[in-house]
Structures are given as structure tokens and as C-alpha cells.
Amino acid sequence: KRRRGRPKKQQQEPTGEPSPKRPRGRPKGSKNKSPSKAAQKKAEATGEKRPRGRPRKW
């Protein structure tokens, strides 16, 4: 008498064509898009560039 816990799912035979798997995460091309004119204008107005991420502990 073993097999405690969740019972195993019955394996189903694939019928027809397997569906293509979707890529996960952020799309690769999103990093190298040129910024829009509105975004460029906003970047100039901010002035001092602050580093991203967690602020440094002094």
C-alpha cells in the first residue's frame, strides 16, 4: 500500500498535429526599437539620468 498523494494523470495519445508552443517572456525585438518622437522629447526634459534598479546604500 504505497502511492500516497496526487494520482498520476493518464497519458493521452496525441491526435493529429501537435499545436506549436508559444514563446515565453519578453519578445526579443522589443529592445532595439527606435523611440517615438514623444518619448525622445520627454527624455530630454528629464535632465539628470538616474541609474535603474535598487538605490545605492550610503
From TrEMBL:
<dbReference type="GO" id="GO:0006355">
    <property type="term" value="P:regulation of DNA-templated transcription"/>
</dbReference>
<comment type="similarity">
    <text>Belongs to the HMGA family.</text>
</comment>
<keyword id="KW-0539">Nucleus</keyword>
<dbReference type="InterPro" id="IPR017956">
    <property type="entry name" value="AT_hook_DNA-bd_motif"/>
</dbReference>
<keyword id="KW-0677">Repeat</keyword>
<keyword id="KW-0007">Acetylation</keyword>
<dbReference type="GO" id="GO:0003677">
    <property type="term" value="F:DNA binding"/>
</dbReference>
<feature type="region of interest" description="Disordered">
    <location>
        <begin position="1"/>
        <end position="58"/>
    </location>
</feature>
<keyword id="KW-0597">Phosphoprotein</keyword>
<keyword id="KW-0238">DNA-binding</keyword>
<dbReference type="InterPro" id="IPR000637">
    <property type="entry name" value="HMGI/Y_DNA-bd_CS"/>
</dbReference>
<dbReference type="GO" id="GO:0000785">
    <property type="term" value="C:chromatin"/>
</dbReference>
<dbReference type="GO" id="GO:0003712">
    <property type="term" value="F:transcription coregulator activity"/>
</dbReference>
<dbReference type="GO" id="GO:0010557">
    <property type="term" value="P:positive regulation of macromolecule biosynthetic process"/>
</dbReference>
<feature type="compositionally biased region" description="Basic and acidic residues">
    <location>
        <begin position="41"/>
        <end position="50"/>
    </location>
</feature>
<dbReference type="Pfam" id="PF02178">
    <property type="entry name" value="AT_hook"/>
</dbReference>
<protein>
    <recommendedName>
        <fullName>High mobility group AT-hook 2</fullName>
    </recommendedName>
</protein>
<dbReference type="InterPro" id="IPR000116">
    <property type="entry name" value="HMGA"/>
</dbReference>
<dbReference type="GO" id="GO:0005634">
    <property type="term" value="C:nucleus"/>
</dbReference>
<feature type="compositionally biased region" description="Basic residues">
    <location>
        <begin position="21"/>
        <end position="31"/>
    </location>
</feature>
<keyword id="KW-0804">Transcription</keyword>
<keyword id="KW-0805">Transcription regulation</keyword>
